Amino acid sequence: MGQMIGQEQQPAANASVEQVLEQVNAEYQQIQKELKEIEILVKQSSSEVEKLAHRNAQLTNKVREVENNLDTVPREDIKNAYKAAQDGQGRLFMMRGQVEQLRSKQDYLKRYASSLQKVLDVSGALIATAETEVKEEESSSQVDEGSGIVKIIDAQESERRYLANQLHDGPAQALTNLILQAEICERLFDSDSSRAKKELGGLKDAVTQTFQKVREFIFELRPMMLDDLGLTPTLRKSIEDFEEKKGLHCNLKVLGRDARMSPYIEVTVFRVVQQLLKNIVQHAVASQIQLSLDIANDRVTSVVEDDGHGFNVEEVLKSARERKAMGLTTIKERIEMLGGEIFIDSSTGRGSRIEFWIPIKS
Q1: 87, CA 20 to 30 Å: which among 9, 104, 200, 295?
Q2: Is residue 335 within 8 Å of residue 342, measured between CB atoms?
Q3: How many Å apart are CA 297 and CA 162, to the nearest integer?
Q4: Predicted pLDDT at 251
Q5: What is the pTM of this model?
Q6: How many Å apart are CA 321 and CA 308, to the nearest integer?
Q7: 125-144 burial by CB neighbour count: b if 16+ within 10 A, else e?
Q8: By the 8 A CB rule, do 337 and 274 touch?
Q9: Longest CA pairwise span in the chain (Å)
């Protein structure tokens, strides 16, 4: 009887897996389409940057000529030369920022597409293996909520929800405000030119602030210096930004070797520390944080301590598993998948100490 029930449930499980894979494949195709569009935008924007740089050089030379002939050049021409040079520099700065954003998004989408491709490849191999094993034992091919592919999909969807919320609350909202300010300026030009100029000044400041927020968002999404300079400099920069934005003192102590590691190790350590700091801000109500990074020959170790409220470790982990939350449970699984360990020491009222290490393979 049990075997018959298993046989009835098997098609439903297979259909569920096939549906998930269809969604992953559709997502992969959409990402490929977006990559082609971004590639075109990058080429067009890069070409525009080259033109603007050439034009900017001409404007700079014009300013130098004016400066060399201040006694003979009309005042209006001097003013126009400086204004044109300033406008050219501003335009060039904005276009270079746009190219940087496009390339950052392009790199992120490439990595995401690569992850999706790996999921499809691995899933194809798993399905082929499962179909063979089903003939010998039907129950061996069932997929439960703890299977690897479901965890991957859940992690991807959670990350996409987080990014969507961040974009909505940050850059998207700021851009909406910029559009409203631009419309106000447009309406004021004919009726009140002096107020229109004042509004334009405010609009310029708002654009600058929005651009800075976008750069911070890109850094949080994927700091380029992690690829260029490595884990230690990126952590230092991240801690500086963290202290400035959160107003919470965080002392970073770097021990051991100052060496580069495999990219997957560096990004894992960075993301884990990033998540732990976020947890402290959200839950611990701490006044200071102690953070250490120790790179040895065979492993990298990090310790994060705070003087906050602390928590019951077993209750928090149990609750996270039941809610399928992306927090300490996900951190623990990620570290253990890489062959490392994590140790959580905390209790209510006495802060917390979290230590983890990941092996460094030659």
Answers
A1: 104
A2: yes
A3: 35
A4: 93
A5: 0.47
A6: 23
A7: ebbeebeeebeeebeebbbe
A8: no
A9: 103
